[in-house]
Amino acid sequence: MMIIMRPGASQEQIDAVIAEIEKQKLTSHPIFGVEQTIIGAVGDGHYVAREIFEALPGVMEVQRISKPYKLASRQFHEHDSVFPLDGFTIGGTEIPIIAGPCSVESREQILEIAQAVKEAGANALRGGVFKPRTSPYAFQGLGEEGLEYMAEAREKTGLPIVVEVMAVSQIPMMEKYVDVFQLGARNMQNFNLLRAIGETRTPVLFKRGMSATLEEMLMASEYILIGGNTRVILCERGIRTFETATRNTTDINAIPVLKKLTHLPVVIDPSHSTGDSAFVSSIAKAGVAAGADGVIVEVHNDPAHAISDGKQSLTPEAFAKMVKQVKAVAEAVDRCLVDSPLPLRIPYGDGKG
Amino acid sequence: MMIIMKTNATPQQVEAVIASVKSAGLNVHLSQGVEATIIGAIGETHNMPTELFEVLEGVEAVQRITQPYKLASRQFHPENTILPVDGFTVGGEEIVVIAGPCAVESRSQIIETAIAVKEAGASALRGGVFKPRTSPYSFQGLGEEGLEMLAEAREKTGLPIVVEIMSQVQLDLMVKYVDVLQVGARNMQNFNLLRAIGETRTAVLLKRGLSATIEELLMSAEYILAGGNQRVMLCERGIRTFETATRNTTDINAIPVLKNLTHLPVILDPSHATGHADYVAAIARAGIAAGADGLIVEVHPDPAHAVSDGKQSLKPEAFAAMVKQVGQIAQVMGRSLVSVNGAYQSARQGWA
Q1: What is the C-alpha separation between B227 and B223, in angstroms, rounded?
Q2: Of the candidates B105, B248, B111, B6, the residue with the CA atom closest to the CA atom of residue A257
Q3: Residue A187: predicted pLDDT
Q4: Is the pLDDT of residue B316 over 70?
């Protein structure tokens, strides 16, 4: 950290800052300039809050030099994290594709879509049963009944299931069913939920908040990592900007920036990041071309009558076409799609531990 | 246009709006709902401001149904516009790669860069001679001297030159030298400049403003098209957002959205859109995968000592690696990079 003193700060104020640095078990390194004094605080300071120094008299500004996160950083873990998810891996050469409806609407709907996306090349099935809808009057999801349907879809297709968790209270029940927790954009900074997920050993698809910076996203992922759950997949799903032509703005820069800052796998959600099925395929290709490790896409057998996100959902046919295009792009960047997911579940770990 | 009346609008207010719609030469389609009355104004409305009806009493909101631009729209011109620029085309199957320094700094710098980018596979040379720098104390460009140097680089390499124009007063001078006029992000809504460029027949690379919506970009293109200059390329160069990890945020959605809304070619500038050389190749690949018709990339022989934009400039070797990667993506998309074999024919002779 660099602590920049105000012009004219007194020697006592400077000494007080140096004393505080030493109290935090860091080494002080003052630089006396013509106009101002800058004091470097050297050491492993990722756990030291900037506010400690900002509050001291005579301090103008505190700048962090090292990253405020550690476990998520590439300095801490140099090589890409590659982990298995039910018959395939994420973060390595293989690019998994997760597909399915926004919401589980009925048994028939999810079974039909699961079969269709599997045939089209999906490696995992998504489907929400607890839905964080903007309006409290909108469909809120089928709850545990929906999880039963998802489990049946998994039995029938062999696809692992990715389901959003919205509250700490849902964790024990959901853990019994799901292969991957999804942590939605609106919960990216729900720190109690993050800590609770960190205590589980279920992999997490971790979505970026609508107005979260990449640093904030990595800080939030750190909450899960410190609990010992190391299987975190980051997801760019578009940010809020002034542009209204699309639902969100895909921050495609986030892909190479995250790959540089962190070892965690990074996937792209072109459905939410555009909000329009006409643009999903282009952005899926762009994501993989930029270095994404996977794609999560909304697919519905009847988008016009979907309960939610119909406008951004692909039909199974359009999805099959997208998979072919993404495969070609993956090969152009020396990656590949998952060849053939195994039909049986491969348990990973033993739950807690 | 749809004119939505307030729930408590009086019949007299509705009548007044209807009269106003008719006097604007439009047809009326009245729909009386349970809570509100909606008046459809049907006809040629792209050149009509919504304010015309917004100011009337009893009006809650006015919504446009058709796009406020015409010449730039795909409805008006369903096929892609394919622009010839000096031995290649933009907007067709070929993908153009424009490369060069942010600013022309010296004769040796621009000629060295031109030769290097050409060898690496560039199809055109960029270089600024009038620089819109944030600080008035920063280097402002070499002016006409820089144009002479760019012209010499073109003679030596056969690469057409793309140069930013900042002001109408530069136009007469610039059209004598340049193959493509660049309108920078900060001038996207410099409407006098746009109109003046519309009067020329020089190709234009129109960059999106830092906080301009896609619709505003297309409206600006309309200014140039309305003057009769149809050789307009649009350029996504990143927008201003809350994210600070990169200089700008590449709005990659803009590529398929623009290709859907307009027939004009769409180029991506991964250098400004990221602000960091480390990310340029990844975003260049993403742009082509998303359907862009070309790239404009900053390349400098010595980025550490560049007068401007050093941090986002690629070295010639990194640029060559990027071109190879982009070529592979282009192939997958059923397209190919422009192959430049040195045959220089003046676009200004070939295109009237």
Answers
A1: 7
A2: B248
A3: 96
A4: yes
pLDDT value of position B341: 46
- Give DSSP secondary structure letters for B125-162: EE-BSS---SSTTS----THHHHHHHHHHHHHH---EE
Q: How far is CA B171 from CA B151, B207, B346, in A?
A: 16, 17, 19
Q: What are phi and psi of A122, to 5 degrees?
A: -75, 155
In angstroms, how far apart are the furthest CA atoms of chain B?
Answer: 75
- Separation in Å, CA B30 to CA B4, B13, B42, B65: 10, 13, 11, 16
pLDDT at B347 over 70: no
Mutation test of the interface with chain B: which of A210, A239, A253, choosing the one with the most B Cβ atoms within 10 A? A253
ipTM of the complex: 0.87
What pLDDT sits at residue B340?
58
Tell me how far apart the alpha carbons of residues A294 and A27 are, in angstroms, rounded to a whole number: 42
Q: CB contact, 8 Å: B214 with chain A?
A: yes
Residue B113 corresponds to which tokens in the numbers above?
Answer: 């860069």
Sheet containing A37-42, strands listed edge to edge, beginning at the edge strand earlier in sequence:
A27-32, A37-42, A2-5, A59-63
Global pTM value: 0.89
Q: Strand, helix or coil at A193? A: helix
Percentage of the residues of chain B whose pLDDT score is greater than 90: 82
> E strand or H helix at A123, and its extent?
none
Between CA A127 and CA A94 the distance in angstroms is 22
- A341: pLDDT confidence band, cut at 50, 70 and 90? very low
Query: By the CB < 8 Å criterion, does A31 face chain B?
Result: no
Instruction: Please state, in angstroms and rounded to a whole number, the distance separating the CA atoms of residues B198 and B227.
Output: 4
- Residue B47: pLDDT over 90: no
Q: Which of A282, A329, A337 is the best substitution to test chain B (most B C-beta atoms within 10 A)? A: A282
